[in-house]
Amino acid sequence: MKISKKRIIISLVIFAVLIFWIALFYYIDPQSLVAKLGARNGYMIIFLLGTFGGVSTFTGPSYFIALSTLTIGGLNPFALAFIGGIGVTIGDIIILILGLNAGKRFPEKFKEPIEKLRIFLEKKPKKFVPFIIYAYIGFTPFPNEIVTIPLGLTGYHLKKIIPIMFLGNMTSGLIFAITGFYGLKYFYGM
Questions:
Q1: Which residues contact 101 (CB under 8 A, 6 or more apart)?
Q2: How far is CA 86 from each of CA 3, 50, 78, 147, 168, rounded to the nearest angstrom?
Q3: Which residues lie below 8 Å from residue 176, measured CB to CB, with a gap of 6+?
Q4: Cα angle value 150/151/156 (rounded, 5°)
Q5: What is the H or E stretch that residue 3 is in?
Q6: Measuring CA to CA, which residue among 30, 60, 68 is closest to residue 176?
Q7: Which of 8, 80, 131, 171 is 20 to 30 A from 120, comparing alpha carbons?
Q8: How many CB atoms lie within 10 A of CB 52?
């Protein structure tokens, strides 16, 4: 199997980001990082990371690492989850809109499976799709694009799922922030 140069570069970038964060926290503890950034800047950073992390599957991990770091550093996990949730939802909306536009220009061979998915979703109870979206975004570690792109391709209504995406993004952010905070306290006695 031949590995493309693009995949190698993406893997190296992800690896470099992880090494950067590990090295950063080896030399700088989260509390001093937050002290240097300041609380206002910490909230702005989580919003920007959420927005850009919501647009790309590959930048999502940096959002969650920063969320835990800022929580450990002393920022309010609920405020971080709320502000980060807004940012991630904005990124998800961008992906959803791109999916809506791509669905209009999709090749014929893909139109049949998309139509089957649309019909499948229409046959389900009205609360089924919002519940699945919330459960997936709020409680799984997988990229939101797995849900937002197919929904965009089927033409699912934006107004129906934006609040659900926000609640899911806020829930996942809060779970990650609190888990990181208490996990560090548990393992390192901080």
A1: none
A2: 36, 8, 12, 17, 11
A3: 64, 67, 68
A4: 150
A5: none
A6: 68
A7: 171
A8: 18
CA 182 to chain centre: 21
CA 67 to chain centre: 11
For tokens 């990650």, what's the residue? 176
pTM: 0.72
Tens of pLDDT along 101-150?
666 666 677 777 777 887 888 888 878 888 988 999 999 878 887 887 78
* C-alpha pair distances (Å), 63 with each of 67, 70, 88: 6, 10, 9
Per-residue model confidence as pLDDT tens digits over 6-61:
767 766 776 676 677 666 656 666 556 656 666 668 888 888 878 876 555 555 66
Residue in 188, 174, 187 with CA at minimum distance from that of residue 70: 174
Instruction: Count the residues in the chain.
Output: 190
Report which secondary-structure segment, H or E, holds 160: helix 158-188
**Cα separation of 84 and 55, whole Å?**
13
Closest CA to 85 of 181, 177, 184: 177
94 pLDDT higher than 70: yes
**To which residue do tokens 């209504």 refer?**
157
